[in-house]
Amino acid sequence: MTGDRPPGRHALLDQVRAKARSVAVSGGHWPSTLASLLGKIGATWQESADVCGDVAWQARADGHSALLLLEPEQITRPSTEPVTARTYRHVYLGTLRYDFRCRTIETLLHALPDGTADELDCYSRALGVFALLGQSRTTGYVGMEQVLGEAGDHIKTLHVLLHGLWLGHHLPGREEHMLRLLARPPFAARADPIALFREAAARRRLGQHHRALEAIDHALDLLPPGDVAVHADLVRERSLITAAHDWQRLTIHAAEGNQR
Predict the structure, then answer these.
(1) What is the DSSP code (8-state) at residue 78?
(2) pTM for the predicted model, two decimal places
(3) Alpha-carbon Rg of the chain, whole angstroms?
């Protein structure tokens, strides 16, 4: 878990993030810089996932998406540099996830060299599960349980799975699965606005509108200032909750009127 790292390790990872973002802002090839930096510090798959997810998200927002700098062949071809291959997978597949390109993720993972898929790190496999869940494929549930068995409470991995469940509109029982993931220790403090956003969506779908509204309002309070795109998503969810609640009240009143 990320909380088990020594303070010095957190500072080191922050330095890696800052250097990679600086290269991205300057228009440089930040994925290769990131791979070099992660290799130098001997990053674990968890640390790679944490750093790559943050840098890829910011680079995408700034117009320097990994999809503009890497070719699909750099993800699928054999590599003699495991850290570079893992970094490129994390940033490229992660950016595809942000763009909701589930089929492309699935295609790339199927195109990996023979035997490679069995050796993928847990986060890379979680991105593959996201692709299945996001397409409402129930086979993703099997993969999700396998990933959870290894990932434990690694929060970035949990978010990938939550995202897939949230996107998989036709998945049976998806809301219950989401709430089960949200009951894990990393979310216990209810201090994660994205987790609260996912909770609100799940509770809205279950008809728990008051609890959904409570979750989304808490998420809006916690969201850092300046994150305009995410704020818009949260506001949209709040509108859906209030509309669903109003519709529920109208249908109840109409049913009561018909019984008179």
Answers:
(1) -
(2) 0.93
(3) 20
